[in-house]
Amino acid sequence: MKRKFIFPVLLLTCTCLAMPISQTAFASQIKHNKTKHTKSVSHKQLTKEEAEKLLLEYNNKVKYIYQGDASQFKSLKEKNLQGYVFLPDVDTDIGYFVDKNTCSIYFFHPSGYLELVGETKNN
Which of 28, 31, 98, 117 has its Cα between 20 and 30 A from that of 72? Predict the structure, then answer.
């Protein structure tokens, strides 16, 4: 019975001792920075101008035309989303929705299509 208890304790102890201290410090630093970033974002909501600037950082080769906020689109209102809708000044029917709480950019169509930019898979 003692063997069953000693082996896992010994294994855990060796694992903890083998982990480099520099990696441990780095991991705690990331966690701390992530917490700080989350706090700053959660207290401030994005303005329309900041949302447009974010889109220009994403793609500065087109102009963006403001179409309204989320309350003007049924599909966004039903999902209780808050943010801004823009159309690129090109021939397309897919626009962009910028969530003013999370700063996330989505492909958007008023029919209800909503997909986070960057999650598209190319095969």
Answer: 117
